[in-house]
Amino acid sequence: MEQPDQSSSDERKHEFEIYVNTVKVLTSHHKLDYHQVVKIAYPHETERKYNVTYRDAKDPKEGHLVPGGPSVEIKQGTIFDVTPTTES
Asked: Which one of 2, 7, 52, 55 is separated from 40 by 20 to 30 angstroms, measured CA to CA?
């Protein structure tokens, strides 16, 4: 008996539904860092600085991301808020 193609179901299994500035986003990454989240929120911005906060993550559960800092392990429903700072 032939095995069904599992590649598409395996890919879906590894996608996480997260929210960035209230917009639902699908990602296959299980960890995200500051630059990855900023690129999702503001794909064309490169020069500005941002405050990046998160909650409902896997580890650590909530906190801030900073440039060059550690990444956060996400889970389904992790929420990110990305806001421009007043610094340039």
From this structure: 7
Spatial contact of 70 and 33, defined as CB atoms under 8 Å apart: yes
The residue whose two tokens read 């990602």 is 27
Q: For residues 20 and 79, give the distance between their C-alpha atoms in angstroms, rounded to a whole number.
A: 6
- Looking up tokens 């610094």 gives 87
Q: Give the domain 13-84 fold.
A: Ubiquitin-like (UB roll) (3.10.20)
E strands present in the chain: 16-20, 23-27, 31-32, 50-55, 63-65, 72-73, 79-84
The pTM for the full model equals: 0.81
Cα separation, 23 vs 43, in Å, equals 14
